[in-house]
Design a protein that fits this description.
CATH class of the largest domain: Alpha Beta
Strand order of the largest sheet: 3-2-1-4-5-6
Shape: globular
Oligomer: single chain
CATH architecture of the largest domain: 3-Layer(aba) Sandwich
Radius of gyration: 18 Å
Helix content: 40-55%
Bound molecules: magnesium ion
CATH superfamily of the largest domain: HAD superfamily/HAD-like
Mean pLDDT: 95
Number of domains: 2
Strand content: 5-15%
Number of strands: 6
Largest sheet: 6 strands, parallel
Structural class: alpha/beta
Order of helices and strands: EHHHHHEHEHEHEEH
Low-confidence stretches: none
């Protein structure tokens, strides 16, 4: 019996092509910091620091700590100058990217139904972003953060997808048996890997990303199929 449903965000509850979104995001960020340093160099270090964060499996350091340890050593601008600029970016510029995205309420409608039916919910987005940027993207998908018991961000997590440690950390937070959990996502490698810990898995088939890892999953389909599997009318 499923008691907890974990949802990925990008390409799952938020119907976007991740590659397109990331391009728009890095371009806007580059423009924002152009008065401080060369945008191309900045983005290169940002992506490298993001990869460091993904690779790092030290349980003692948050993703945020890993990111900044690497990133501040690479960029020519001191942290106390760049951080306020980034904060302003996430507050003012980042929301504008959402206005260019054509989304819908399908995921949000299902989330409300799941709450009404007593399911516990987790927003299991790859924790590479600050909380503000995750909450903002949830807004684009018409989601209410209050419906989720846990929202994974770079501040509160110590691991990233596709590592099973990321899902293990969520299970420990929930104090729940993996057999009672279902991970729903659009990425075979990053999301369906939760099955290795004994969680049930559902591949949402709208914006599927499959790098050929061959990771198995239990179910696949659209939101209607998911409702059916979870016994929701
Ligand atoms: Mg996704």
């Amino acid at each position: 019996m499923v008691k907890v449903v974990l949802f990925d965000l990008d390409g799952t509850l938020l119907p976007i092509e991740v590659e397109t979104f990331l391009k728009g995001y890095t371009k806007a960020l580059g423009i924002k910091i152009a008065h401080l340093m060369d945008p191309k160099t900045f983005i290169k270090h940002l992506l490298d620091a993001t990869n460091k964060m993904i690779e790092d499996k030290n349980a003692e350091t948050t993703n945020e700590q890993v990111f900044w340890k690497y990133f501040s050593g690479k960029i020519s601008v001191p942290e106390d100058i760049i951080v306020p600029v980034l904060n302003e970016f996430y507050e003012k510029d980042f929301p504008l990217i959402g206005s260019t995205i054509d989304t819908n309420r399908r995921g949000a409608v299902l989330i409300k139904k799941l709450r009404e039916n007593g399911f516990r919910l987790v927003l299991a987005t790859n924790p590479l972003f600050p909380k503000g940027a995750v909450i903002e993207r949830m807004r684009w998908a018409f989601l209410d953060p209050a419906d989720f018991e846990l929202i994974t961000t770079y501040e509160n997590m110590h691991f990233c997808k596709p590592h099973t440690e990321y899902y293990q950390e969520i299970l420990e937070y929930l104090e729940e048996d993996p057999a009672h959990c279902m991970m729903v996502g659009n990425d075979v490698e990053e999301d369906m890997v939760a099955g290795k810990l004994g969680m049930k898995t559902f591949l949402l088939n709208h914006f599927v990303i499959d790098r050929g890892s061959g990771i198995p999953y239990e179910y696949s389909g659209d939101f209607n199929k998911l409702s059916q599997v979870l016994g929701i009318k």
